[in-house]
What we know:
Layout: E1 15-19, E2 32-36, E3 47-51, H1 55-67, E4 71-75, H2 86-91, E5 99-102, E6 112-115, H3 117-128, H4 136-166, H5 172-192, H6 205-214, H7 228-238, H8 241-251, H9 261-268
Amino acid sequence: MQIEPGRPAPHIGDTLRLALLGPVVPGRPGRTATAVITRQGKADAMIDLYYWPTPNGHKITMFLEEAGLPYEIKPIDIGRGAQFDPDFLKIAPNNRMPAIVDHEPADGGEPISVFESGAILQYLAEKTGQFLPADLRGRTEVMQWLFWQMGGLGPMLGQNHHFKVYAPEKLPYAIDRYVNETTRLYNVLNRRLADREFVAGAYSIADMACYPWIVPHERQGQNLDDFPHLKRWFEAVRARPATVRAYEAGELYRTRDTVDEEAKKILFGQTDTAAPAGD
Ligand SMILES: N[C@@H](CCC(=O)N[C@@H](CS)C(=O)NCC(=O)O)C(=O)O
């Protein structure tokens, strides 16, 4: 985190004006952001959140801000390889963030760690009794859309970003495949939202899982005007105060382009691909 030199350490409730060192968008230097320190930096936070400001990371800050749980962000700078730190791998063996450690689990026992954003959302919803209905039918509605996001919307849109934006070679077959699949998934969500306010009943972890993946719709080759129900939902979720706070928290860590050339080597050059000897 880069904070203006000479400033005291941030405290809960502080509003900071931050100079973002290093342009986020090439050609737009000198950006600043206003960030409200919510529960980050609290020494005895209930939840440690291992985080970087990406769609899967935003899901969890959205939940924590909605529920008002005390949390401390432990930045995992994936563009600099922090996901391979042995201590992080103990709680997140897939070398991906987000992950959490809950220091006050419901059973009163030792801290519990959770990785995978869908599992984290479910864990936090069960812990707090919020954003996941208790009744069989309501819960099943939410869980199927949460799994739909985890198995479809996230991975497919991630491949869209990869081939459309980051791949060194622009492969028309791969770009068409993932942009078309993105459009299909947007249509599924748009139809789903035609006759309801949120994805599954009241505002839930299914909405929190989907929303951050719709934020980069332009880079995914999509125009939200083509999906009017999705657009209405998107604007409603974007306007929620907790969503605003979650994205402001992320701005603190967006001190440079996350996927610069060094990051590309780390993110797209992972070499743990050979079977161990004897397999
Ligand atoms: N299915 C995982 C995906 C997590 C994931 O892909 N995280 C990315 C950032 S959005 C990451 O940590 N990448 C680091 C890497 O590729 O090494 C989840 O939903 O938690």
